[in-house]
Amino acid sequence: MTEKRTISPWLKTGLELGPVILFFIAYVKLKDRSFTIGGSDYDGFILVTACFIPLILLSTAVLWKLTGHLSRMQIVTAVLVTVFGGLSVWLNDDRFFKMKPTLIYLLFGTVLGIGLLRGESWLRQVMEELMPLDDAGWMKLTRRLCAFFFGLAAANELIWRTQSTETWVYFKTFGLTAALFVFFISQAGLFRDHALPDDGDNT
């Protein structure tokens, strides 16, 4: 098995968010343009999506090479970007790529929900090293995050089906990211009340 390695948090963040930021910049520059390739006309969004697929795969591969590890979320995201981005490009239909966040959040919400029905926090298995919580804390956080993921899926569906592509791109780039940040900030009370005591406290 590949040994897990630690890299700079800034480099890790850059590899994870860099493709999304580049997607947004490229879209803003090309959104009003149309390109004829192989006799077919493609708008800027489709062309940017076509470039985003290899970019996300490259950044994921570099992250795996540097750390020796990929989270389940990173793997699933890369797969869904490839599948639904590829369908959007192949069929020249941006709806497939816009549905990707919905499917990602539905998948994670469902997985967490299945664990909850079994009386388990599967979130704990992937985040325990980052947030040492007691059993009750993990169950509360998992229930809240499960509901939050379903809420994000519903929000993405509402936005892409009722708003313009430009509005959806802004929502995808900034809205969803900000929502995740606000969610975890809002859980400060839970982290405080259910944090495991530091081993050093017993000395």
Question: How would you explain this protein's 3D organization?
Answer:
This protein has 203 residues and is mainly alpha-helical. It folds into two domains: 1-92; 94-195. The protein is built from eight helices and two strands. The protein has helices spanning 9-30, 44-67, 72-91, 95-117, 122-127, 135-162, 165-186, 188-194; strands spanning 34-37, 40-43. It has a two-stranded antiparallel ribbon. Strand 1 and strand 2 form a beta hairpin. The longest helix is centred in the last third of the chain and has 28 residues, at 135-162. It is globular, with a radius of gyration of 19 Å. The mean pLDDT is 90.
What's the number of extended β-strand segments?
2
Number of domains: 2
Strand content: under 5%
- Main β-sheet description: 2 strands, antiparallel
Q: Nearest-angstrom radius of gyration? A: 19 Å
The coarse overall form would be globular
Topology pattern, helix = H, strand = E: HEEHHHHHHH
Q: Please give the share of residues in helix.
A: over 70%
What does the oligomeric state look like here? single chain
Poorly predicted runs are none
Q: What is the rounded distance between the termini?
A: 37 Å
Q: Strands across the major sheet, in which order?
A: 1-2
